[in-house]
Amino acid sequence: MTSERKPRIVLTAQDHERLSILARTANGTVQDAAAVLTSELDRAHVLAKGRHPEHTVFMGCEVEFRDDTTDKVQTVTLVYPGEADISQGKISVLTPIGAALIGMRAGHSITWETRAGDLKRLTVIDVREPKPV
Fold this sequence. Notes:
alpha/beta, 3 helices
């Protein structure tokens, strides 16, 4: 991975707790992503229970981001593994890009490593809170 300093990330207390359990219990093909997620959790600023950050990616948010290599803009919803469905734009937090997005603030960029080992850079353009069900 790059020695570039990663941007500060902020997580809700609930997300931090649930994601910590998820990362500890992950196995099989998602172990590498779980290790990346654990690294992100370790450096996160965790908000008090009941608070959530504005314009910051948390679970269930819709995220618009740009691949800084290709300038392609995508919109995805960050979800837990059991809810992931790429055809609906729902990506798991246990994917390299999902782990890179969690806790990122609109306007910030991060370099992340694909499963193939390539380094990519993305910039979060906008974050929208989950739609009520």
